UniProtKB/TrEMBL annotation:
Keywords in alphabetical order: Hydrolase, Membrane, Protease, Transmembrane, Transmembrane helix
Organism field: Brevirhabdus pacifica
Gene Ontology biological process: proteolysis
The name this protein goes by in its record: Rhomboid family intramembrane serine protease
Any one GO molecular function term: serine-type endopeptidase activity
Family the UniProt entry places it in: Belongs to the peptidase S54 family.
Topology class, membrane: Multi-pass membrane protein
């Protein structure tokens, strides 16, 4: 289950969101050749990825920033950039370009610190924009809890798109991170669940002043938790290929 789009169009071009996506893709392409050499890739991550044990010793603090522009594979970066593309433009719309950039980077750093707190002695490198994007999701759920998000559900050979309110889709995602975090060993490799949960809460907290400035509960009452502008409408396109009727006749 993953989102494919929301019904919440932005009112201006989200230049920072596009730039962040481009930066992540460019960096990934830059070290893509290292994936064929495990030792070289490991050495690269040792320098630029966030290693909790190093942070505990006061070393390589720069990796709290650089690690959020690294990814462990095509599916990893593809999923992260999809989430950023869906939810980032609306927060940038409300926060402004530079405000959103500061918000995104701060959420990423706080997410990294949350993962560090979960396992300060771990030698496992942590990479990915997931923590920063989780912050975006936390801010989104506060401002637009009832914005509709189209979610693609895949079950074996069953494919179906369901529109869900943001609070349901993002709330379920957050709950899954917390549940999985308690069930996983943060000192081992795998998904950085506590970075996700920490980033989400950090984004929620950093968006709170904006929400209050917009009116707080009065903002929700005014918008009913939906976007403060007309929602996007999506419909199935009619195929441009004309239908051809079959005539009965001989077969050759």
């Amino acid at each position: 289950m993953f989102p494919i789009r929301d019904h919440n169009p932005s009112n201006r071009t989200p230049f920072v969101t596009y730039a962040l996506i481009a930066a992540n893709v460019i960096v990934f392409i830059g070290y893509w050749p290292l994936f064929s050499d495990e030792r070289a890739l490991s050495g690269f991550f040792d320098v630029w990825a966030m290693v909790p044990r190093e942070i505990s010793q006061g070393r390589e603090l720069h990796t709290l920033l650089t690690s959020m522009f690294l990814h462990g594979g095509l599916m990893h970066i593809g999923g992260n950039m999809l989430f950023l593309w869906i939810f980032g433009d609306n927060l940038e719309d409300e926060m402004g370009h530079m405000g959103f950039l500061g918000f995104y980077l701060s959420a990423g750093v706080l997410a990294g610190l949350a993962q560090w707190l979960a396992a300060p002695a771990s030698p496992v490198p942590t990479v990915g924009a997931s923590g920063a994007i989780a912050g975006v999701m936390g801010g989104y759920i506060l401002l637009f809890p009832r914005a509709r998000v189209d979610v693609l559900i895949i079950f074996v050979i069953f494919f179906k798109v369901f529109p869900l309110p943001a609070w349901a889709m993002l709330g379920f995602w957050f709950g899954l991170q917390v549940f999985s975090g308690f069930g996983a060993d943060a000192t081992q490799g795998g998904v950085a669940y506590w970075a996700h949960a920490g980033g989400f809460l950090a984004g929620l907290g950093m968006t709170l002043p904006l929400w209050l400035r917009l009116g707080g509960p009065r903002f929700w009452n005014r918008t009913h938790g939906r976007p403060p502008h007309p929602e996007a409408k999506y419909g199935e396109r009619t195929s441009p290929i004309p239908r051809v009727t079959r005539r009965r006749g001989r077969r050759w």
